[in-house]
Amino acid sequence: MDKLLEANELIKRYSQGNVISRAVLTAVDNVSFYIKPAEIFTLAGESGCGKTTTAKMILGFEDITDGELYHNGKLQSPHEKAWLTEGVQAIFQDPFSTFNPMRRVDSYFHETVQNFKLAKTKKDTIDWIDQKLRLVGLTYHDVAGKYPSEFSGGQLQRISIARALLTDPQLIIADEPVSMVDASLRMSIVNLFKKLRDELGVSILYITHDLATAYYVSDRIAIMFRGKIVEMGTVEQVLMNPRHPYSKLLRDSIPQADPKLRWSDTVTLAELEHEEYMRQGCRFAGRCPLVMDVCKTVVPPDIAIDDVLVKCHLYTEEAEA
Amino acid sequence: MSEEKQVVLRTDHLKSFYVLDMQGTRKIVKAVNDVTLEIYEDEIYGIAGESGCGKTTLLKTLFNEIVPPQRLIDGKLYYRINSEEVDVTTLSAEEKRRLRMEYISYIPQGSMSVFNPVIKIKGTYEDFIGSHVDGKNREEIFRIARERILELGLPKNVLDVYPHQLSGGMRQRVTIALAASLDPRIMIGDEPTTALDVVVQRGVIQMLKDIQKKLKNTIIMVTHDMGVHANVADRIGIMYAGKIVEEAPTETIFEEPRHPYTQFLINSLPKFGDKSTRESVPGSPPSLADLPTGCPFHPRCPHVKDICRQQMPETTQLDKNHKVACWLVEEA
Questions:
Q1: How far apart are the CA of A95 and the nearest CA of chain B, in angstroms?
Q2: A182: closest chain B residue by CA
Q3: Of all helices (H) and strands (E), which one includes residue A302?
Q4: Which domains does chain A have, with CATH numbers?
Q5: Which residues of B touch A (CB under 8 A)?
Q6: Residue A241: which residues within 8 A CB-CB, separation 6 or more?
Q7: How many Å apart are CA B161 and CA B166, to the nearest integer?
Q8: pLDDT (tens digit, 9 = 90+) per residue, A6-48?
Q9: pTM (2 d.p.)
């Protein structure tokens, strides 16, 4: 199978303290997944689950403690960053802090075109920029000479997507791209991702905590919890029929825009985040409604059921049978 | 919903603008533009709208906290205090101060900046409660505050820690417990769950509902998340460019929205099990300092007619609980 990007047992450890007392926190723990060409893959989870750290390791912003990254089947060495800049581009959460408020927005476009030698003459440059801006529903004329404060959040987010498209990337990493955008304008961004996938064949790593938009756009999804992927598969299987108790909790906690679907039961909230990271065995055991004795001591294995990967002791017997 | 609830807060053609003097030119931001509301006892009233539509300014005005450059231009604001309607904009500063916390309290969005970071949570409680209750009763009040904290499922040592030792969700819940500690009749929440994780958000919403049930008071809640509104609100007002364009019970808003803007808001929300294409509202919200003529929604409206460009439609009462301001409804 064609794999555009493959992460194999990625690990990120942060250590705190000094020589005498040292605490190690494994923020990303043995995370493996792959992204196919022209696919939207979602990493979903709550804050502190390690999804952004994973993205930063792929982008080369954070050193990888252990594990490998492959691009198109080729191992990525830590020193070679060419694919990282041309083949992978990123979009961030807050469109207002992406752009320097004192700098004109179009200067970012000209700079990227120059750095990557994408066009020779001034006219070619503008044509190139205009072509990319048209993909997101804007024109060069709309952007030229303007400052970030002259745009709304939704527009700025579309501008940063157009900027990411300048190098014709194969993969766009979008870290919570809609969480700062008004709910009424979110779909314009999300629909754009679908269009990029279908028309340009760009793959997107969509990082979010919003499972409703994740269901709407993505092909496959991985649910992360405290540094580990607990469930991974197609969105239909994972979100319509969640198997891991944490996936169920997360899915049920999305407020549905339908007054008939109000929550009836109550939830138990997390103990301290840090304690869950330090937990032996399954890290969800402290809150899991179906907890068993084995969960508190043994880390659950990855179990494959119907093409879905689940990390939970509930399914151990099913896998053996 | 029981029939004939008492009105607890009422506004009459309320107008509150920001008047700015910028290098000699006057700029008027019409953030609350002719809002008439009736909010009842024992209900959760939701206000929804995009950022920059004047939601927060409306809340500040309802809270009777009008600080320049914001000014009350026109209209009246009434609270029902001891079964008597009081025009609260005419009260003195001391009378207003007494009403806060005791009669009406405020839950802000960012709970990090609510508590003083260098004193324990207890200290903040002392400041708030101490400024409203005499020394004699203070012990009594503290006992109640502690009980309330336990009732709401918060750990009892929460008063003895510093704000940074609490997680975001816990801090937000302590903020809500503090706002509820003097049994106010009205609680106002400005995006109280927006910055939180989904599971934590669910816990906080649960707690707000519990408090409302216990105190049988009124919660006015602003958020742009229609999912949250669907879960908590009894009635919803849709705000656009400083005006309430539609108001109805929650079920009606979701099932039979009549204003084109409300229809866009509801239809743009993705749902599980439904992958059909969803569109967001076209265009962007107008600047409140430079409103379009006529109906402020007309530049984005797909059903625009000539009259929409010239005149703001009156609010039409469709049935007892459903109000909408749109020419499409007016003419039908």
A1: 15
A2: B50
A3: strand A302-305
A4: 5-87+169-320 (3.40.50.300)
A5: 50-51, 167, 169-170, 197-203, 205-206, 224-228, 230-231, 250-251, 254, 264-266, 268-273, 275, 277-281, 284-285
A6: none
A7: 8
A8: 999 999 998 877 777 777 888 898 999 999 999 999 999 888 8
A9: 0.86
